[in-house]
User: What shape does this take?
Amino acid sequence: MANAITLARLPLLVVIVGLLYQPDSGARFVAAGLVVLLILMDTLDGVVARALHQESLIGSVLDIAADRTVELLLWVVYADLDLIPIAIPLLVIGRGVFVDALRSVAPSRGLTPFGLMRSRLGKFLVKSPWLRTPYGIAKAIAFCLLAIQHGLAVGGGGGLRPVASAAQLAAWVAVVLCVARAIPVLVEGPRSLMDPLPPREATK
Assistant: This one.
C-alpha cells in the first residue's frame, strides 16, 4: 500500500507538468493545488508504511527515487519557464548525482540509504525531522508559489510581485538546506562504504 502511494506520485507529477505548460491561468492554479497533494502524498506513504508495518529497504529506495524525480523535474520545469535561475536546478542536480551515487551502493552493503550516517551530527542533519521538515516545507512552499506566480503572470495579474519575491526566497532556502543535508553524506558515506563486510557476506 505504501509503495503504491509512492509510485502514484509519478503520474500525478506528469499531470502537474502538463498543466504548468498550459497558456491559461486556471490550469496553472490547478497545478499549484496538485503540487500540495503531491507533497502530502510524500508524507502519507511514510505514515502508511509505519502504521501497517510495511517499512522496508525497497520502500526507502522507492521513496528516495520518487522524491528525487519530483524535485528535479519541478526545478527544471520552473527554470525552463523562466521562474527561477538555472543555477538552482544545476546545484540540485549536481548534489543529487553525488549523494545518490553513494546511496545506491548502500543496499549492497546491507545498509539503508540513510544508514550511511554514523555520527550524531550526520544523522541529525540528514535524518532528523528538525532539518528534513523545514527542507520539505521550503520546497513545498517554493513549488506552490512558483506555480501561483506562473498563473498570475497571465495578463499581469495583481499580486504578482510579492508572490514572486516569496517564491524566490523559498526556492533559495530550499536549495541551501538541500546542499547542507548533502555534506554529511559526502563526508561520512565513503567511510561507511569502506567498512569491511561481515565474514559471511565477505565469502559470497
Q: What stands out?
A: The domain at 2-196 is CATH 1.20.120 (Four Helix Bundle (Hemerythrin (Met), subunit A)). The longest helix spans residues 160-193. Helices lie at 2-20, 25-51, 57-80, 87-105, 120-127, 129-152, 160-193, 199-202. The CA atoms of residues 81 and 126 lie 31 Å apart.
